Each structure stands twice: as structure tokens, then as C-alpha cells.
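Exercise 3.2. Students should predict the tertiary structure of the chain below and write it as C-alpha cells, then compare their answer with the key that follows.

Predict this chain's 3D structure.
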Amino acid sequence: MVATLHTLRTRRKRARESVEILVEHYGSPTLNNKEDPLDELVFIVLSQMTTAPSYERVFDRVKNAIRDWAMLAEIPVGHLTTLIRDAGLSGQRAARLKQIAARLLEDFGEVSLDEVAGYDDERAQTYLRSLPGVGLKTAKCVMMYSLGRPVLPVDTHTARVAVRLGLVADGSVASIDRVLPAVVAPALRYDFHVNAVAHGRSVCRAPRPRCSECVLARLCPVGREVRPSPRRA
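Answer key:
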């Protein structure tokens, strides 16, 4: 079931009301993301296609073993693979992290993203996306969580919630990424993203949403179709 789209003004109003409800319910969780941009980038590389308990444990292990990210450029790939072995695809991830470290060292003379903090949004996003294996969502997550930029990362959870609420038309994550920022005001984007992720994980699941438990039920056209009508006495 896909919601019918209304006017942009109506969708912006629904986005604002949804954020208010989600913030009250979930409290805008940090999702364990990091303040330092390189910490965040490593965290995301380790988290892709991996369960939260696993990648959070692996990140903590790596951070304890490699207290200075400059060591990423020097550590043998086999040792790094062993450190992250339970994150899955450990050989691929280890190689990717070393490639990123080598690139930062070449560009800035240090394994750090501190220089990028001084870039404007467009330049920061372009640079981050130029790093090995870094896509648009990853770049936007680094920008939002660690650089405080009013961007809106779109992952499968935020896309699903946005589509079911009728904020955007159904489509690929890439197509939703192009449209959703026009619906969600810059000041609301952080709260929309983190709370939609929390809501998508716990309630608005694919393929079986828990509509009877949904705090957005009165705003959600899909939920109104899925939930049974109340019985009349």
C-alpha cells in the first residue's frame, strides 16, 4: 500500500507534526553516532550490512586498539582484518579503511577529517563522496552527526517511514533522497532522520509494520488502511 501524495504544503505540515510526535516518543536518540567526523566515518564503514550490537562492539575494539587513526595507514591489513572479524566482510572493510587513511594522508598530511569541517556543505559532501567506498548516505551522516550540517541522510528506514506517511512517492532511496529535503525543513532534518530510524527499526518495519502500536497512526494513510476499523457496539 502506497499513500496518495498531497500538496507540498500539506506534506510539509505532516512532516512537522510527525517530527514533533516522534521526538516526544523517542527523544531523538544519537544511535551511538560520533562527534569526530573520522570516528563517524569508521563507525559507518563498520556498520554497513551488520547488526548494531556487532558493529558497536567492533568499533569499540578498534578504537581501543588504534587510539590514533594515523595507525590505520601503517597497521598490516591482516591485523586490522582480525580486529574487525565479527563485523562481517572483514577483509573488504579492512582494505577500505586503509584506502581511506592513505587518501587522507595524501590530501591533508594526516589521517583526519578536521580540514573538511571548514568546508561549505557542497564542498564537504563532494570531498567525502570522493573517498573510497563512501556513498551519499554515508557522506550525509558524517556531515549531519559530526559536522552539524542541516542535511538529511536517507536510508531504508527513513525512506520507508517517509513513503508510508505520504511525504514522498515510493521509489529508490536515491530518488527519495532528492525529494525529501524539500518536504522536511532544515531545522527538522536531524530529528526526522534519527527518530525515523528508531521508528523504522522498532515499529514501522518492512514488510510487517506494527500499525496498532504506531504513535503516528492518526497521520499515516497507510496505517489507517492496514489497521482494522474499530468494532461498533
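Discussion points: The two ends are 29 Å apart (CA to CA). The chain has eleven helices and no strands.
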